[in-house]
Amino acid sequence: MVFDVDEVVGPDGWTTASELLTRISRRTLQRWLSAGRLVRLRPGVYAAPGAASDWRVRAAAAVAGRKAVLSHATALALWNLAPHPSGPVHVTVDENGSARGSDRVVVHRASGAWDDRRRVDGLPVVSVERAVVESWGLRGGSTPGDVRAAAITAVRRRLCSPRELGYELQRSTRLRGRAALVSLVDLLADGCQSELEIWGCLRLLRGQGMPGFVRQRRVVVRGEVFFLDAACEEAMLAVELDGAAWHGSQTQRERDIRRDALLATVGWQTLRFGYRRIMQATEHCQAEIIAVAASRRRLLRGDVVR
Known about the structure:
Elements: H1 5-9, E1 14-16, H2 17-20, H3 26-35, E2 39-42, E3 45-47, H4 49-52, H5 55-63, E4 68-70, H6 72-78, E5 89-93, E6 105-109, E7 118-120, E8 123-125, H7 128-136, H8 144-156, H9 162-170, H10 178-189, H11 195-204, E9 214-221, E10 224-232, E11 237-242, H12 250-264, E12 269-274, H13 275-280, H14 282-301
Parallel strand pairs: 5-6, 11-12
Antiparallel strand pairs: 1-3, 2-3, 4-5, 7-8, 9-10, 10-11
Helix pairs in contact: 6-7, 7-8, 7-9, 8-10, 9-10
C-alpha cells in the first residue's frame, strides 16, 4: 500500500510516534525518516518536511503533551514583537524537566517556567518581559537590534512595563550584555518610546544648560489627550522629536499643526526637531531650546520680552 505522508501526519503538520504507528508500521516509519519524507522534531514527535519548515508548527509540536512553555526568540515572535529567526524553536521546562531536544527544538531549564506561563494563540508562552531578557543574552537567536526593538515596542504597546523588565533583570545577574539592557530599561522608564526618543534623550535633551524635562507629559485639551515627548514644566515648553518617515507625510504634518495649535490654547509652546536636523546639528538644536525656554520663563513671570 502506498501512503501519502501529509495525509498520514494530519492537518496540523505534526504528530506523535504513537499516533503514526496506528496508521503505518514501525518499518515504514524508519524508512520515511531515512528517506527524509518525515522529520523528527523531538523525541517521539514527527512532522512532514514542508510543515517542519514552519516555526509555528515546530513550536506547537515542541510543547504538545508536556509541561513546557515557548520561550526566548520563539516567545518574542509569538507576542508579535520580532521575526522568528531561522533555526530552532525554543522551549523552557522547569529545572527538573527533561532537556532533550533536537536540531529543530532547543530546550532550556528554568524555575517557575510552567507556573508563570501565559497563552498566545492557544500556546503556552513565557511573559513578554521574560522573553526579552532571555533573548537579550542568547547567542544564535534574534539579533540584538531585534531584541532591543522588541523591548521598546513591548513597553509602547503596554505588553509589559519598564518595572517588570527591571524585575526580570534582577533575576538575571549573569546575563550577557546586562549593562546595556539596564541602560535601555532606564530610558524606557524615563518615558522614551522609540529609538529616536532614546537618542534625543541621551544627546539632545541632556547637556550643559539644558532645562529639566518630563517625558511623556499628559495634557488634555478639549477632551483630547496628548502626550508630549518632552515637557519643560516651568517654561510650558514641549519638545517633539519627529521621525523622518512618520512625520514626513502630509497627513501627519497637518495633524501635528492641529495638535500644536490646540496645545497653544492652554499655554504650551511646541518646538519640533526632525531626525536629520537632530543628527546633523545637535548643538544648534540645544541652543534653540535653551533660548526659547529662557524666553518662555520670562514671559510667564510677566517680564518684558524684547
